[in-house]
């Protein structure tokens, strides 16, 4: 760890924690329809939207109604994204005349962007027309983010309300989060990105004659607008194949810092929104503390191991030591302007949150530098996690934690004054177990079949890690990859799409069911026997539960991949 | 269910138009009004013709030019319509071989140079389009470029220093040298002396 890396991490956390409170309050006010300047300003457009849609904004929905609305809205998204890709050749804004996308790839991408996974089996600059990038992909960058957030808000209402039959109005929630939070943030961020060099145009690809008299064709497009919401909505699907490593997406170290902040901004702020809406800010800070501790440990691990470099290069006379004139370390698959500290920090952020954007190629990381991102995803994307999905995922673990504590002391578990009973525990179990089932089941199927093994790029244990990483990433809706895996085949496109769909909706539906059941319960007063859920004891218990469940599920698989590779790489050194 | 279909459809279409058409067009309008050069790709012109983008690395093989990061794009390096890293794992024999070959090529181009080779000069970048090298990687190439151009090493070193950017705001990223801008400056300085 260089002193620069410590400074960068410290500064990042400082800025992030400063922004969390005001944004958390703002989101709470907007989602609860409290009279704020933003709602007053937007009221004419908001009211017109409801009139056009036939929505009565004070009409509330029960959880089932809410869940159906979300499913229907997401289903329409899949159809639209699929159709636009299949028809793009005949639609406008396609200066490169890019052909229609194949059915299996289009299906995979449609599910991928609707579920906020943004796994990419295709290379953007040679596959997607500008219209597809905007009207299919950018739209879902917004709407999948909105979906995650409103589900988290519905769960918060489950805790905040008592003896209530409803959890909110899905249409109003989706409209408000898009109008008042996602759009303004994205617009401001996009302009900052352009100012630093992210491109934003509709020109055909530009030919230049290089200094050595070769022709270089530069890919163009409306990049900055998609880039901004890609980070703010923890989506992660790049305009270009190289994602945020591409200089036109992420031109400078400054834009990179903003991208990192943008990923954690809403997941962090929602913790405070949660504390505020349940009437006890300390509850939100406790959840945030658990997330931050897990994140910092992982970030330090990635930076440390990437700075170690590759022992196999030493014999060739390669200088990998950090100095004033070079970052050193494992620079394969990394950009010079980002070096090791920024690349390591970004990798931890993008896999803590279910973002999946990358500024360095994770496939080329050192074995343990790549292990940390894998584990962060395998914990269920609850370390900050995706927008909304990180918070509802972590609250599911909080329920699990109070349940375990209840078993230890022989009391009926309670969380925030709500009794946790058999129904909640069933929903919790489904939400926690569905992703390991998809990840480990999918990996097993892929390594046992010829079509699965055909996609593997790197030999040995690393090849297994590629497959494990792919299913870990899609099952937890992250979207980053050990990108050597050739996943744009019918086998992977279909199997991964199934994992993405259930990894998302088989969690959302039980979470909403739990929201409904919790909202209907009475609120119990805290007594001397109640486990406080805002102190260090609970934070420790929560971290322990997350680690216990995550590691019990995945240690054997991790041992076969990155751990074996690490031992082989350093054997004899 | 029926009560859900109309709001679902209408809201989906409305939000699609807003976030998928109005929003990107608005960013394009603002971007092109305030930062027209950046929005168009930060192109660099010489004699009125675009010779590249300051953000996109080019392939340099001539000894008189500084060379950039190795590029793993296919089918040829620095292909700016197919950005990609190598995705080679740390233990992959192909990676070790590629690095050893790059070291050999650098040594062959400058036989007297015994400095250790900076790692970023022999490892492929993430995008395949990295416009920068580290100051160490530039320093390693100074003697070769100076010899090929018939310049004193000190002169070339000065040009490198002028094109070295520090960490942004002293904390973000790493010190770096923009290869295309440096090579252009060297060409221009010699063209002025020998018109």
In short:
With 573 residues, chain A is mostly helical. Chain A contains 18 helices and five strands.
Please bin the fraction of helical residues of chain A: 55-70%
Instruction: Give the SSE order of chain B as H and E letters.
Output: HHEEHEEHHEEH
Radius of gyration of chain B: 22 Å
In this structure, how is the largest beta sheet of chain B organized?
A: 3 strands, antiparallel
Number of extended strands of chain A: 5
Question: Uncertain spans of chain B, ≥5 residues at pLDDT below 50?
Answer: none
Q: End-to-end span of chain A in angstroms?
A: 20 Å
Structural class call of chain A reads mainly alpha
Class by SSE composition of chain B: mainly alpha
Count of distinct strands of chain B: 6
Q: Give the number of domains of chain B.
A: 2
Mean pLDDT of chain B: 96
State the major sheet of chain A. 2 strands, antiparallel
Strand coverage percent of chain A: under 5%
Q: Portion of residues in helices of chain B?
A: 40-55%
Morphology of chain A: globular
State Rg of chain A: 23 Å
Mean pLDDT of chain A: 97
Give keywords.
heterodimer, A: 573 residues, mainly alpha, 18 helices, B: 195 residues, 2 domains, two-stranded antiparallel ribbon, 6 helices, 6 strands, extended
